[in-house]
Amino acid sequence: MRRARGSAQGVLVAVLVAGGLLLALALVVMVGEGQVARAFLIALGVGALLAACASLDLAVALLLIVSFLDGFLKGIDPSKLSVFAKDIALLIAFARWGWANLLRRHWPALRMPVTIPALLFVVYCSMEMFNTASADWRVALAGLRTWIVWIPVAYVVYDVARNRANVQRLMLIVIVMAFLTGLYGMIQYRIGFAHLQALGPGFDFYARRFGAPGEAVRATSTFVSPGVLGAAMSLSAVIALAGALFLPRNFLKIFSAATAAVCLVGLGSSASRAPLLGLVAGGAALLILMRKPRLVIALLLIAGVFVWLTSSFAGGAFARRYNREMLRPEGMVNRVLIPLQHGWDSLREHPLGVGVATGAGIGRGADALGRPAMRIGEAGGFVENEYGRALRELGFPGIILFLWLLYRVLAGNIRSYRACRSPAYRAVAAACVSVTISIIFQLSVGSALYLAPGGLLFWTCYAVSQRLPELEAAELTPVAQPEAPALSVPAK
């Protein structure tokens, strides 16, 4: 047995060494051909993936970090490697989670109330791949991915958020990434995209579409579009405000409050309206739930000072981007109702939907497949409103399952908030409710649950909220002291 185990280990070591040598050789060749940025990206990615394979905590950390750098990675290396970087990180984390639970024969995350509607929703969306209106299985596979890809995040994060320290680390990762990407978005708003074009060919797309000189510039930071930057900033601002209460040490609390302000100006540099409305809805919920007027006023004052300072640095991005013309109520209402009406009209003709092969989620694969592949049959043409898109693609059963899924998440977060007692835990629980409400609003104008990091933060907050009551109860329960042994009385 020992010989067999030793030989197996020897074979594994030999394979790893050979693979490492081949990778090193490939990187040297790439550097020699002038692909320095791509070689660095691959080396960094391989190291991160190996670390993720060793630890579920590191795997989740990698997933969150990559989700904030999604557009930057695609700009440096617009290939399948960068397009599926998030998917690879999620796959490793999910496999690590499944293997660990299989070994211990214990699956605590499956007890979450969202499991049954999530499972039914995944099964139904998978069936819609084979809808008779779907013409191309590759387009259908991409469409399926848009609906279900980030649901596993909730189960992976649930196992990671097993104690207060881990929850604080998760929040700190989000806050640090939000600070860096928000600050860079402000800088990008001032200087444009020219400095990025030397790093990789993928940045030409951002420069052409969003980088016109002057006030037409809309920052994308490290994301794939200004809308995604705005969504990330609106959600991160709420999490940062909660971090000002929940994180240890005063330095981190002050840093969290400053990050919230940076996120607000970063949102302004994106010129995105839907994230702004989502932030208003989620922020209102946060202020109502926290029930600490003095604390809320103090945080708002701190945030206000930093907004003034950072907005001055960003050339008044927030004030210049949100004006009466941009925030006209009529235009904003039509932006929601017109796509929703398209989905309703489609539902009347196709009660069971037209399938998930409408072209949503194709992204960079559109050129490879060809535009005709996305428009063949009745499934072509997706609706830019997730409720309307659910009506069109999934039909009546699908919209019921989708709304049930969202309801379970929102109800679960509210239940966790009510179960928490201490101000710090209630602040985090309130932030989770706020993130959920913000996403629900943003779904009315786009794929807020599909684009990173919005979808990841949505499911991360849900998993964390389900852990909060038990973590707080464990802290408040006094540790039982062992009884002192009774003194024996010697017999006379």
How does this model look, in words?
With 492 residues, this protein is mostly helical. Helices cover 73% and strands 0% of the residues. The chain has 22 helices and no strands. Helix 14 (273-290) runs antiparallel to helix 21 (423-442) and helix 21 (423-442) packs antiparallel against helix 22 (454-476). The termini are far apart. The relative contact order is 0.12.
Please give a quick description of this structure:
With 492 residues, the protein is mainly alpha-helical.
Key terms:
about 500 residues, mainly alpha, 22 helices, about 75% helix, about 0% strand
- What is the typical, i.e. mean, pLDDT? 81
Number of strands: 0
Biggest sheet features: none
Q: Radius of gyration, rounded?
A: 25 Å
Share of β-strand residues: under 5%
Count up the helices: 22
Task: Report the uncertain regions.
Answer: none
Straight-line distance between termini: 62 Å
How would the blueprint of this fold be written?
Elements (H helix, E strand, L loop, with lengths): L1 H31 L3 H19 L1 H13 L1 H7 L3 H4 L1 H20 L10 H13 L9 H12 L3 H9 L3 H28 L11 H8 L15 H21 L3 H21 L2 H18 L2 H21 L3 H5 L7 H21 L15 H5 L1 H5 L10 H34 L3 H20 L11 H23 L16
Helix pairs in contact: 1-2, 2-3, 2-6, 3-6, 3-10, 4-11, 6-9, 7-20, 9-22, 10-12, 10-13, 12-13, 12-14, 12-21, 13-15, 14-21, 17-20, 20-21, 20-22, 21-22
